Amino acid sequence: MSVSLSTAASLYDRVRRVIPPIEWPAFTDDIDAILALKRERNAVILAHNYQTPEIFHCVADIVGDSLALARKAMTVDADVIVLAGVHFMAETAKLLNPGKTVVIPDLSAGCSLADSITASDVRLMRQRYPGVPIVTYVNTSAAVKAESDICCTSGNALAIVESLDVPRVIMLPDEYLAKNIAAQTKVEIIAWKGHCEVHERFSPADIRELREAHPGVTVLAHPECPPEVVAEADFAGSTAAMSDYVGRHKPARVVLMTECSMSDNVAVEHPDVDFVRPCNLCPHMKRITLGNIRAALEQNRHIVTIDPSVADRARQAVERMLAI
């Protein structure tokens, strides 16, 4: 997606279904300024699927889940990368683009999963289970990635685990993702106790209530949800997989058991699908706004830096993932 030659006035049709006309004027000045700043600074904006529609559809150049952003970051022809997402994503972009300036609009845009584990925790796990490969979810700090053998995302976790051709792996830090993957493989998975504060709040009762209120609704769940939620759903997959499912199957009515803005962003692409929206917001993703994206470009803030001794090892874990 590229909007660098557009103006705010020409973009509203994209988001008309999810942003009321009365709200649009509040965004236009920032959108026009961001589009101009991108051209001036040879900058691109990478936006995660959980960003709000005015960011996702109106100023972002590259959008997707964490795996898509990691892959596409490697091909970016720009001097500056603005990561509209959370801090671990900005670190990953910097790992893969060490010669580029990477900025995150708000340093406090964190992640409950990334906060659930430290590099010293990983070292202790390695001591406890010597010789067992450590597969680390990308929702972690660079310091944690540096202590790992290979990274994974929710979209490729099963393939990564099985590619190692071993009977047992350690999978960090999302307990629910690890359990959901364990249900699909013969590989024994040792899990950590981290949880996503958005996805852990969904329950099987939520799904049953949605089915009662909306007969025939198709339920798609993210694998960071508890296993009993995944078991109640019609399909489970990464944000990219959920979006692809809607595009392929065109369900008449669908509910995405994930962060709120995901439904808005997919709905823009599929006006013929009725989206039911159970709204669990990620407070960290919502720290990213048009205003602080603009400030990041105007003031070159906040620049992401990673200690070289950490970056080299973390980069290896990410690159091993991307090679599979």
Give your account of this protein's structure:
With 324 residues, the protein is of the alpha/beta class. The protein folds into 3 domains: 118 residues, 3-Layer(aba) Sandwich (Rossmann fold), CATH 3.40.50; 84 residues, NadA-like (Rossmann fold); 78 residues, Rossmann fold (3-Layer(aba) Sandwich). The chain is 44% helix and 15% strand. Helix 12 links the parallel strand 9 and strand 10. Helix 4 packs parallel to helix 5. The longest helix has 17 residues. The radius of gyration is 20 Å and the shape is globular. The two termini are 25 Å apart.
Known CATH architecture of the largest domain: 3-Layer(aba) Sandwich
Question: Which word captures the global form?
Answer: globular
Q: Biggest β-sheet: count, sense, barrel?
A: 4 strands, parallel
Structural category: alpha/beta
As a whole number of angstroms, the C-alpha radius of gyration is 20 Å
**Based on DSSP secondary structure assignment, what is the total number of beta strands?**
12
Topology order in helix (H) and strand (E) letters: HHEHEHEHEHHEHEHEHEHEHEHEHEHH
What is the terminal-to-terminal distance? 25 Å
Tell me roughly what share of residues is in helical segments: 40-55%
The CATH homologous superfamily of the largest domain is named NadA-like
What number of domains?
3
- In what order do the strands lie side by side in the largest sheet? 2-1-3-4
CATH topology of the largest domain: Rossmann fold
Count of DSSP H/I helices: 16
Strand content: 5-15%
Low-pLDDT stretches: none
